[in-house]
Amino acid sequence: MAVYCYECPEELLHNPILLPKDVKNFSKLVRKRGYDEVEKPEHRVQIAGRIKLLHEIIEAGLKQLISNHSSMPI
Fold it and tell me: Which positions ≥6 away from 20 have C-beta within 8 Å?
């Protein structure tokens, strides 16, 4: 498993383009999972949850696209 950092040449991995609708839908999921916050707490539970949620969304989307196009070459 690789972890990509801001020093790598893969600019798109670090600067995703999110449309307003995407941000709104992500916000809904964040609230449903309880990762929203009114004030910044000392712990990082909510931010960690939001990061994990974003990775979960990306993974689910990739799996779905691969599944839908399994007969197509990558």
Answer: none
